[in-house]
């Protein structure tokens, strides 16, 4: 079968290769891939800016059909449509794993960078990491359950959005717009989406198309002043930082209310970022740092998507066959695409 492989360390080194069809082991299943989204992580792996173990088939945002069962499988059956948590090779016995946090286990090696992933025709997954996909969620939409589960975990579970919250989302990329949709599904009374001038071509218009009425270009308008205007001078109940930019990170404190919450999703370049620490301290705000997904966030995400409360597929702008992967990545690099899904 054909797979998109990161062949060695360094920038680039992606190519389509003939790779073996995997066989499922004990309590594993083989999945015939139906679709797989391109994540920011895939771009970072391509650019040598994220840990990875080459040669490795890339891709982890997949949906597919159970094709073959390994010995001892009892949780799924052949022919069922599934998506899967990318928490493979978590040890299962450390304090993080035993308290329900395998997503940050130090031995975790996810599909697409640690083990062979889903930019191919078949992959193997442990049965316990799979979730069945209802008929109301099609294959392409199913490919973005994983990134949506991130925003559900971050906003609903960790930042504990409350009904009636005024929410600000900084950064209108795919995760930022999924965060805005999640906030709306979680009961926000209103959601403001903030971007920059470079976002005027695609991302900010997409936010407006998705029904968000307060969409701000922070280089053309004072975003903090707009927040204060819309909240009677109090500030936002919840600010969700998705840009990873130094300016975006620093801006969160000025927009959040006293005793408000900041949810950190975006990751900056480099280790150090200037941050108004004293201002945050005097506001007594809570800051939730977030990474990956919980088991429960997947169940919530699938329910919200299946019932139409969280129309995550709205962020998908392009589909490409796997053979056209170079065009797909180029569309992302050139900001011509928002969320791209590859189909084998």
Structural write-up:
By secondary structure, the chain is of the alpha/beta class. The chain folds into two domains: 2-146 and 293-343, Alpha-Beta Complex (Quinone Oxidoreductase, Chain A, domain 1); 160-289, NAD(P)-binding Rossmann-like Domain (Rossmann fold). It contains eleven helices and 16 strands. It has helices at 40-46, 95-98, 139-142, 145-158, 174-185, 203-209, 223-230, 246-255, 277-283, 295-306, 325-333; strands spanning 2-6, 14-18, 28-37, 56-57, 61-69, 81-84, 122-126, 130-132, 166-170, 190-195, 214-217, 236-241, 256-264, 286-289, 316-321, 339-343. The strands form three sheets. Strands 3, 5, 6, 7, 8, 15 and 16 form a seven-stranded mixed β-sheet that branches. Strands 11-10-9-12-13-14 form a six-stranded parallel β-sheet, with helices on both faces. Strand 1 (2-6) and strand 2 (14-18) form a beta hairpin. Helix 4 crosses helix 10 (295-306). The radius of gyration is 20 Å and the shape is globular. The model has no long low-confidence stretch (mean pLDDT 97).
Briefly say what this structure is:
With 344 residues, the protein is an alpha/beta fold. Helix content is 27%, strand content 26%.
- In CATH, the architecture of the largest domain is Alpha-Beta Complex
Head-to-tail CA distance between termini: 10 Å
In the CATH hierarchy, what is the class of the largest domain? Alpha Beta
CATH topology of the largest domain: Quinone Oxidoreductase, Chain A, domain 1
How much helical structure, as a percent, in the residues?
25-40%
Mean pLDDT: 97
Shape: globular
**Oligomeric form:** single chain
Spatial extent as radius of gyration: 20 Å
Count of β-strands? 16
Q: Which residue ranges are poorly predicted, with pLDDT under 50 across at least 5 consecutive positions?
A: none
Give the topology string: H per helix, E per strand. EEEHEEEHEEHHEHEHEHEHEHEHEHE
| Biggest sheet overview | 7 strands, mixed
Q: What is the H level of CATH, i.e. the homologous superfamily of the largest domain?
A: Medium-chain alcohol dehydrogenases, catalytic domain
Structural class by SSE content? alpha/beta
User: What proportion of the residues form beta strands (DSSP E)?
Assistant: 25-35%
Q: What is the number of helices?
A: 11
How many separate domains make up the residues? 2
């Amino acid at each position: 079968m054909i797979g998109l492989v990161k062949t060695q360390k360094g920038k680039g080194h992606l190519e389509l290769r003939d790779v073996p069809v995997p066989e499922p082991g004990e309590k594993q299943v083989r999945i015939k891939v139906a679709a797989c989204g391109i994540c920011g992580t895939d771009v970072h792996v391509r650019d040598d800016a994220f840990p990875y173990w080459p040669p490795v088939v890339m891709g982890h945002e997949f949906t597919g059909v159970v094709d073959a069962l390994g010995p001892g499988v009892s949780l799924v059956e052949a022919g069922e449509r599934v998506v899967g948590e990318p928490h493979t090779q978590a040890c299962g016995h450390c304090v993080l794993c035993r308290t329900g946090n395998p997503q940050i286990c130090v031995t975790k090696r996810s599909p697409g960078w640690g083990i062979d992933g889903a930019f191919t025709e078949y992959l193997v997954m442990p049965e316990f990491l799979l979730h069945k996909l209802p008929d109301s969620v099609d294959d392409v939409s199913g490919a973005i359950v994983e990134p949506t589960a991130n925003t559900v975990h971050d906003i609903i579970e960790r930042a504990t959005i409350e009904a009636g919250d005024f929410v600000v989302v900084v950064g209108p990329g795919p995760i930022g717009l999924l965060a805005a949709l999640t906030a709306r599904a979680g009961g926000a009374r209103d959601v403001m989406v903030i971007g920059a001038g470079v976002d005027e071509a695609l991302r900010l218009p997409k936010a407006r198309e998705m029904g968000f009425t307060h969409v701000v270009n922070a280089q053309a308008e004072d975003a903090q002043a707009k927040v204060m205007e819309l909240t009677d001078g109090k500030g936002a109940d919840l600010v969700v930082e998705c840009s990873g930019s130094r300016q975006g990170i620093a801006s969160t404190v000025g927009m959040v209310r006293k005793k408000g919450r900041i949810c950190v999703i975006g990751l900056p370049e480099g280790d150090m970022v200037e941050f108004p620490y004293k201002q945050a301290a005097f506001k007594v705000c809570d800051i939730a740092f977030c990474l990956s997904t919980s088991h429960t966030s997947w169940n919530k995400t699938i329910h919200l998507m299946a019932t139409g409360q969280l129309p995550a597929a709205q962020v998908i702008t392009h589909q490409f066959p796997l053979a056209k992967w170079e065009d797909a990545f180029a569309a992302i690099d050139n900001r011509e695409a928002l969320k791209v899904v590859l189909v084998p």
